[in-house]
Specification:
Layout lengths: L2 H52 L21 E2 L22 E5 L5 E3 L11 H9 L4 E7 L2 E9 L5 E7 L1 H36 L1 H16 L13 H49 L6 H29 L10 E4 H15 L4 E6 L3 E4 L1 H18 L5 E7 L2 E5 L32 H11 L3 E6 L5 E6 L11
Parallel strand pairs: 1-3, 8-10
Antiparallel strand pairs: 2-3, 2-6, 4-5, 5-6, 7-9, 10-11, 11-13, 12-13
């Protein structure tokens, strides 16, 4: 099942549930309102009967035997003789339907009105209310084919009044309402089912555009393809994210192409030199021993430069985060001290002055160590013979300063570019990738790389990394 079909199905189910719940709620509210009106009307009728009874209407004349039950019949009609508990209901108010009423006498007999068409069933609980008093109660009862809503209300002297109204009209109204709600619900569900696919198609149109664009890019490899962003909702943000991803891929591909082109250009010169020297060595019978040793030394030096260049190219060609960074807690000052010792062995005649304060960082020691070595090699390359390089470590920052000519004015923003080299560096060894690697390592560790010129001459390169709290012990 496609996403569009799932969305259409879920939206149809949601609308159906909403319609059904709304129908149940409407039915419940209407039913409670209608039955509430009936209950209020019954209370008013019972109140009128109670007032007439307490005023003497329907009470026995002097000498009558109060509390003596009538002959044992199911119901005893109130007449002008006998028990004399005559029950005459007041006429209904305008707009009210006529109610049924009867009295339960102290003896438990039932006295109905002279014109009551339907008797109200009396239970033992009703007689207990008449005898003991207490709270009145509402209940639904059946009398023959009629369903009645009955209020049993205690009076005084063991007497109770029962007032009832037929629920026939109310039930008819509720049954009609059920039919109407069923028709409306069925119609709403049918409309929801019909409009679900239309709504799903419109809602998922931006997602469809993203899918089509992705398929187009996969087919044509055109990373410049973009889609229109509509709105700032989730689908709009999806389209914007797709465009950002395509822009990042386009920049990455462009950088890789530049890297390959630059690497090819840089490799051309040492390869040509190697070829010439090897061809010359091939004519070994024409060379004396000194010339042969010089050519072998040149070939070895060129091979070392090519090896270093290829290693730097591979390092920069690796996508950020492609290889897992083996982080651990490392003393940055000790890592820098080791790098200084290695640089001192390579750079004869260059002195190193170091101020290394204890500093703990969470890094990949191999990659950060290489970056520090690149900074030191760059400084020694530009230092005059017998010069010195100053190295400082403090609060997660490694700063290397030389006393050479410094960076060219107006080119500080290019120092960390791949293969960038100053004009006067063309004759010096190096590939122009060392400081680019420094910046890559800094970014991988959430830090930064900075380059500047010292006020009194010389270049300054800094590698700044997040420092751990001093109390954390190295792992």
């Amino acid at each position: 099942m496609t996403l569009r079909h799932r969305l259409a199905l879920l939206s149809g189910i949601a609308v159906a549930l909403t319609v059904l719940l709304a129908s149940v709620l409407v039915y419940t509210l209407v039913r409670n309102r209608l039955r509430g009106d009936i209950d209020n009307d019954l209370r008013q009728q019972a109140e009128r009967v109670t007032q007439r009874f307490q005023a003497g209407v329907g009470t026995p004349p002097p000498g009558a035997q109060v509390g003596v039950p009538p002959p044992p019949t199911a119901n005893t009609k109130g007449t002008e003789q006998g028990d004399r508990y005559a029950l005459t209901l007041p006429p209904p108010e305008p707009g009210e339907s006529e109610a049924l009423a009867q009295l339960i006498s102290p003896g438990g007999a039932v006295v109905t009105g002279p014109s009551s068409p339907v008797p109200i069933p009396v239970s033992s609980a009703d007689r207990r209310i008449a005898a003991d008093g207490g709270q009145g109660k509402f209940e639904d009862v059946h009398s023959g084919d009629s369903e009645l809503r009955v209020l049993t209300q205690p009076l005084s002297d063991g007497t109770a009044v029962q007032v009832a109204r037929s629920l026939e009209d109310t039930n008819h109204t509720l049954n009609t309402l059920v039919i109407i709600l069923a028709v409306v619900s069925a119609g709403g569900i049918a409309i929801a089912a019909g409009l679900g696919p239309v709504v799903a198609r419109a809602a998922l149109a931006p997602a469809g555009e993203v899918s089509n664009a992705a398929e187009e890019v996969a087919r044509t490899h055109d990373l410049s393809h973009r889609i229109e962003v509509r709105g700032d909702d989730e689908l709009g943000r999806l389209a914007a994210s797709f465009n950002e991803m395509m822009a990042a891929l386009e920049r990455s591909e462009s950088a890789q192409r530049r890297l390959v082109a630059d690497a090819s250009h840089e490799l051309r010169t040492p390869l040509a030199t190697l070829r010439t020297n090897i061809e010359t060595l091939g004519r070994g019978d024409e060379l004396d021993a000194a010339e042969r040793r010089r050519l072998v030394a040149d070939v070895t030096e060129e091979l070392e430069e090519m090896t270093e260049l290829v290693g730097d190219v591979v390092e920069l060609a690796r996508a950020p985060g492609q290889d897992a960074i083996a982080r651990q807690d490392v003393a940055l000052d000790e890592l820098t001290r080791d790098a200084i010792e290695r640089a001192g062995r390579r750079a004869r005649g260059i002195g190193f002055e170091s101020r290394l304060e204890p500093s703990l960082v969470h890094i990949d020691p191999q990659r950060v160590g290489r970056a520090i070595s690149n900074m030191l090699d760059n400084a020694t390359k530009w230092s005059p013979q017998g010069g010195r390089v100053e190295v400082e470590v403090s609060h997660g920052r490694v700063t290397v300063r030389d006393h050479g000519p410094g960076f060219p004015n107006g080119h500080l923003d290019k120092v960390f570019d791949r293969f960038w080299r100053a004009d006067d560096a063309r004759g010096k060894p190096g590939s122009g990738l060392g400081l680019a690697i420094v910046q890559r390592v800094a970014e991988e560790h959430g830090g930064s790389a900075l380059a500047s010129n010292a006020p009194d001459g010389g270049a300054v390169v800094s590698l700044e990394l997040p420092e751990l709290p001093a109390e954390t012990e190295p792992s």
